[in-house]
Design a protein that fits this description.
The chain is of the alpha/beta class. The chain has a single domain (2-248), classed as NAD(P)-binding Rossmann-like Domain (Rossmann fold, 3-Layer(aba) Sandwich), CATH 3.40.50. Helix content is 44%, strand content 14%. The protein is built from nine helices and seven strands, in the order βαβααβαβαβαβαααβ. The protein is globular and about 50 Å long. The chain starts with 7 loop residues before the first strand and ends in an 8-residue tail after the last strand. The relative contact order is 0.14. This is Dehydrogenase/reductase SDR family member 11. Belongs to the short-chain dehydrogenases/reductases (SDR) family. Keywords: Oxidoreductase. GO terms for molecular function: oxidoreductase activity, acting on the CH-OH group of donors, NAD or NADP as acceptor. InterPro entries: NAD(P)-bd_dom_sf, SDR_fam.
């Protein structure tokens, strides 16, 4: 991780769960991390944790509603003005609604599409543009996708539209990789597809189904933790310059979620 010390990373959805843990890991390894979320109070609290206050890096919070393109563009304008560069873009923010295809609302579908697909595309486009402007050709894009971007789940019938957005993320990951290579760029692109991760996000999703007790479900096996995904991000960043890690699927040993 030495080559990343002092360099700038953006982490979306940084206020809790996987995003928060990724921020901690990068700061502890000496990176300047911009964490964004709709509410920045939790990110500011993370920055004040003892382990981070004594770390070689630092965490800066920027308020951004990823459903609003103007917010995303304003965030990148601030990054450009404050740091003049971006080296790593981690598209972690995601939205899942328990919205079956036959009964889900257009608003639920649109919200998932806006956060899981459109925001990811806009953030990636802006990040690559800023990398090129600042002469960075060894940058890294990482999409935090899902195991549900590779297969449909029979365990979550209300998640089919969500699965569709994550399948699109996988297509966008490979499409971006091809476009960058065609342009002669050495910017790398990777995706991580986690299975069940014990986070507030997952608990809140299951709470929408009155027939499921999320805490009882999580006690039936040993789920992944946010740190497992943060460690996977570090693994990608540690890859040597001549190696590009493409797609990683990580699942709990005891539960396939499929």
């Amino acid at each position: 991780m030495e080559r990343w010390q002092g360099r700038v990373a953006l982490v979306t959805g940084a206020s809790m769960g996987i995003g928060a843990e990724v921020c901690r890991a990068l700061v502890q390894h000496g990176m300047v991390v911009v964490g964004c979320a709709r509410s920045v109070d939790k990110i500011k609290a993370i920055a004040e944790e003892d382990a981070l206050k004594t770390s070689p890096g630092r965490l800066i919070a920027i308020k951004c509603d990823l459903k609003e393109e103007s917010d995303i563009l304003s965030m990148f304008k601030e990054i450009r003005q404050r740091f003049g560069r971006i080296d790593v873009c981690i598209n972690n923010a995601g939205l899942g609604e328990n919205a079956p295809l036959l009964t889900g609302s257009a608003t639920e579908f649109r919200n998932m599409l806006d956060v899981n697909v459109m925001a990811l595309c806009i953030c990636t486009q802006q990040a690559v543009q800023l990398m090129r402007e600042s002469g960075i050709d060894d940058g890294q894009i990482i999409h935090i996708s899902s195991i549900l971007g590779h297969k449909l789940s029979t365990a979550v019938p209300g998640a089919h539209f969500y699965c569709g957005t994550k399948h699109m993320v996988q297509a966008l990951t490979e499409g971006l990789r091809r476009e960058l290579k065609a342009s002669g760029s050495r910017i790398k692109v990777a995706s991580i597809g986690p299975g069940v991760v014990e986070t507030e996000y997952l608990v809140n999703y299951w709470r929408k189904d009155p027939t499921i007790d999320p805490y009882s479900f999580l006690r039936t096996f040993d789920p992944l933790q946010s740190k497992d995904i943060a460690d996977t991000v570090l693994y990608i960043l540690r890859a040597p310059a001549h190696a590009e890690i493409h797609d990683i699927i990580i699942q709990p040993m005891e539960h396939s979620f499929l």
